[in-house]
Amino acid sequence: MTVVPYKEDNAGKKQQVARMFDSISGKYDFLNHFLSLGIDIRWRKKAVKMLAEGNPKIILDVATGTGDFAIETLKLSPTQVIGVDISPGMLEVGRQKMKDRGYDQIIDLQLADSENLPFEENKFDAVIVAFGVRNFENLERGLSEMKRVLRPGGKMIVLEFSKPRMFPFKQLYNFYFKFILPKIGRLISRDKAAYTYLPESVQAFPDGPEFVSILNRLGFKQTACKSLTFGISSLYSATK
Fold first, then answer.
1. What is the pTM of this model?
2. Distance between CA 29 and CA 36 in Å, rounded?
3. Can you list the domains of the chain with their CATH numbers?
4. What is the rounded distance in angstroms from the CA atom of residue 200 to the CA atom of residue 181?
């Protein structure tokens, strides 16, 4: 069953996800760091370090949101970073952030669908996505599109929430994720569905070996999965 933010709505997942992120865009950055206790910042740093060896110059950040992952890649001294997202609200916040920090000459944020990327084949040295593949309406189509625009030998990095499996952390985390986080998120963002959708979508996502298996089936090479922070999140890597 497809998990969507607004269960009473007949719109498809893609439309609902875009509307949800438009709704919470103004509070997204604050909630992201607050609800993860800032750990999400460390996760992005680890992800970008995995790209350093390949020295990528042209990078695509899929489901870029407000552009935090794109900003982190600047440590690699790329010549161009393009971020795409389906939420105009998130992109508006992101573009203002780039302008304020003087990054708008290198980082270009564009409205685009991850399952139908508006780029030619083999364009990017690296393709990255943080906490976005879980929201794809068609996971395999989105991943295939990322592979299409990646140059041969280029690296893809996927950072995504996963399900902790170790006692007692699993139980403590599930309690926080299902009962505490949605209440805080709802209180601050004013969107009743957004932070209920988050744990539901993580629960439904094929994480760990299952996700690696999907990457292998789609023809990615050198696939790997690294568990982060007791399994709260996973860092996947693959090459074309």
1. 0.95
2. 11
3. 13-239 (3.40.50.150)
4. 12
